[in-house]
Specification:
Layout (H helix, E strand, L loop, with lengths): L3 E7 L7 E6 L2 E4 L5 E2 L2 H13 L1 E5 L7 H4 L12 E7 L2 E11 L2 E6 L5 E5 L15 E3 L8 E4 L7 E7 L35 E5 L11 H4 L9 E2 L17
Antiparallel strand pairs: 1-2, 1-6, 2-3, 3-4, 5-9, 6-7, 7-8, 8-9, 10-14, 11-12, 12-13
């Protein structure tokens, strides 16, 4: 990967449908305003290309290319995709066609002979699949407060409030003998005694109103964990006049 500076993918188009390249020291997706790229996918594709080995020679007849998906990728409805890799020693382009067994049919750009190669080379030919998808990843246990600013109306805040620990029972006299069943286990940290537990409270409750209970106010365990994006676009193209924050 450290010898590669750009990867172009095109399918059904004369122009690349995906361009992932180094931009200002980072891998970005050109078709998404140079939004950060998922580097793990870039690395996976480069490794797949370098690991692929020719198993056997296939057709050299252009009329048969569509059967195995190695026809000109600029043609509308082309089954295969051309991957063009820009490296320190120049450009390398290969048309990856249909899958077969554990591999793919492939043809080097500019050559007539096609091949069956293994292992298989899997990738996406749409730009949205190449963006870095992770937005935020916050566990519910780490959340201390949530402030919501609606498009209209007052803002409000839900805040974590440490619960008071239950007072521990007094020690038994030294002469007293106690025993517990063999199956009994010590309570987990914070269990029973209330130590380490927390309540969520709603700040600024209007007079005469009552907030929901703590369980209802608490953030969902999954809402802010591993929150990912399906696609991105220029902020200027989105109407944020009625957005909540």
């Amino acid at each position: 990967l450290n010898t590669v500076t750009a990867i172009d993918i095109r399918r059904g188009s004369a122009a690349p449908t995906v361009t992932v390249h180094e931009h200002d020291g980072h891998w970005t997706v050109a078709q998404r305003g140079d939004y950060p790229a998922d580097v793990s996918k870039v690395r996976k594709l480069v490794l797949a290309l370098s690991d692929a080995k020719i198993i056997e020679q296939k057709t050299s007849n252009p009329a048969n290319y569509p059967v195995i998906g190695v026809e000109d990728p600029a043609l509308p409805g082309a089954a295969g995709s051309e991957i063009s890799v820009t490296a320190k020693d120049g450009k390398h382009a290969v048309i990856v066609g249909k899958s077969s067994g554990g591999g793919n049919f492939a043809r080097r750009a500019g050559e007539k002979t096609s091949y069956l190669v293994e292992p298989g080379i899997s990738f996406e030919s749409e730009a949205r699949y190449w963006i870095e998808p992770q937005l935020i990843d916050i566990t519910a246990a780490d959340i201390q407060s949530i402030e919501v600013k609606p498009a209209t109306g007052p803002a409000y805040t839900v805040r974590r409030e440490a619960a008071a620990a239950t007072k521990a029972p007094a020690k038994a006299p030294a002469s007293a003998k106690t025993s517990a069943p063999a199956s009994a286990k010590a309570p987990a940290s914070g269990a029973a005694s209330g130590a380490g537990e927390a309540n969520f409270v709603l700040e600024g409750v209007p007079p005469g109103r009552k907030a929901l209970d703590s369980a209802s106010l608490a953030p969902s365990p999954t809402t802010y964990g591993a929150l990912t994006a399906d696609d991105v676009g220029p902020a200027a193209d989105v109407d944020f006049t009625k957005a909540a924050q």
